[in-house]
């Protein structure tokens, strides 16, 4: 699958639910959102059917995301269905890890090879104040331990930089990669309808983070772990893990974009931002051929995003990244 700018798309991020057990300050409003109705959610069989069609067109990699994917019942059933599809080489998961400890082995056995875990602080009170869910820290730590124990590899830790809330922990996060096989990625906060003030006032660029890390010692640019995503990686000599930066705001990487997104209600989105999406759910339920719709969506994949810090102009009315899988 190639778009009109020559970018090869072989990666689909699938959101299995728009709901979440956390309320991260940069992601979702505290009061939640207008949740999708149950009947509008794609079933696991319907998701697998979309993946099968796209695999026939060149799709190779799938990431399961949300909302929080682990709150949807029996997620490993979906993983098994997707793992059986010829052409799918890699299935990964993005999670907040709160419920991971209980499900890690099952998901690994079903076919998840690697996980990305959101962890915005190493301090219990901060994690819980950023996630706005008291008591979540222990579950996350247990989830991370389980992720290592069952052998997910690589384990990537996503840290959204928030000025005044976690930017004084950049060194602590970087230091951890010397001993633990974690790939810590700092992510620049992106503006959506529910975080405009935060994104205007508390944005920290990854260049600032890298300047702090460079003062800790020599770091070398490295290839980075499996995944082929937008991060740029560095490693302290001899370190077990790496430090990565994801710079959607300061240096957009849209020219390398290799992905599309499927929302929990079956909208195929060629870009995380903007309002372009194609309803695959209704044609799928009507028994229509999805190939022309997928081709058309690929054709209108925008060249780049037009995000502006503190404004929802460029996000196409997106309220929260949890609506699209991030
Ligand atoms: N609940 C899962 C999790 O937190 O990993 C998966 C969904 S979450 C929407 C996917 C990723 O998007 C997470 O790494 C999260 O930190 C990131 N994210 C959410 N809102 C963001 C924002 N406004 N700017 C940057 N990253 C954001
Ligand atoms: Fe939930 Fe993930 Fe959004 Fe946090 S970032 S509110 S864990 S969907």
Could you please describe the fold and organization of this structure?
With 326 residues, the chain is α/β, with parallel strands linked by helices. It is 29% helix and 17% strand. Helix 2 links the parallel strand 2 and strand 3. Helix 1 (44-55) runs parallel beside helix 2 (75-83). It is globular, with a radius of gyration of 19 Å. Iron/sulfur cluster binds at residues 20, 22-24, 27-28, 66-68, 96, 118, 322.
**Could you give the order of strands across the largest sheet?**
7-8-9-6-5-4-3-2-1-10-11-12
Q: Which ions and ligands are bound to the chains?
A: S-adenosylmethionine, iron/sulfur cluster
| Radius of gyration using CA atoms only | 19 Å
CATH class: Alpha Beta
Count of individual beta strands: 12
Helix content: 25-40%
- Report the span from N to C terminus: 22 Å
Overall 3D form: globular
Strand portion: 15-25%
How would a crystallographer describe the biggest sheet?
12 strands, mixed
Number of helices: 10
Strand and helix order: EHEHEHEHHEHEHHEEEEEEHH
Structural class: alpha/beta
Give me the CATH architecture, please.
Alpha-Beta Barrel
Low-confidence stretches: none
């Amino acid at each position: 699958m190639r778009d009109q700018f020559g970018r090869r798309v072989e990666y689909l991020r699938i959101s299995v639910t728009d709901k979440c057990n956390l309320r991260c300050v940069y992601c979702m409003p505290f009061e939640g959102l207008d949740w999708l109705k149950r009947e509008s959610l794609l079933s696991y069989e319907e998701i697998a059917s979309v993946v099968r069609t796209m695999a026939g067109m060149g799709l190779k990699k799938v990431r399961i995301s949300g909302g929080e994917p682990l709150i949807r019942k029996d997620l490993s059933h979906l993983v098994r269905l997707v793992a059986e599809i010829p052409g799918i080489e890699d299935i990964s998961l993005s999670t907040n890890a709160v419920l991971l400890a209980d499900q890690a082995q099952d998901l690994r056995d079903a076919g998840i090879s690697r996980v990305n875990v959101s962890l915005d602080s190493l301090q219990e009170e901060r994690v819980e104040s950023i996630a706005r869910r008291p008591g979540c820290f222990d579950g996350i730590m247990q989830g991370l331990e389980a992720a290592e124990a069952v052998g997910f590899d690589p384990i990537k830790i996503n840290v959204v930089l928030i000025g005044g809330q976690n930017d004084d922990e950049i060194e602590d996060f970087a230091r951890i990669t010397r001993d633990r096989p974690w790939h810590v990625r700092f992510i620049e906060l992106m503006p959506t309808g529910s975080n405009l003030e935060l994104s205007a006032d508390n944005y920290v660029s990854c260049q600032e983070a890298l300047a702090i890390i460079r003062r800790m010692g020599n770091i070398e640019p490295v290839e980075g772990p499996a995944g082929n995503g937008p991060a740029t990686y560095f490693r302290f000599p001899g370190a077990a893990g790496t430090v990565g930066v994801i710079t959607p705001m300061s240096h957009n990487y849209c020219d390398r974009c290799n992905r599309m997104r499927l929302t929990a209600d079956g909208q195929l989105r060629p870009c995380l931002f903007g309002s372009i999406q194609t309803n695959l759910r209704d044609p799928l339920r009507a028994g229509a051929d999805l190939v022309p719709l997928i081709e058309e969506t690929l054709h209108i994949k925008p060249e780049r995003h037009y995000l502006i810090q503190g404004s929802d102009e460029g996000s196409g009315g997106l309220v929260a990244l949890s609506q699209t899988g991030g």
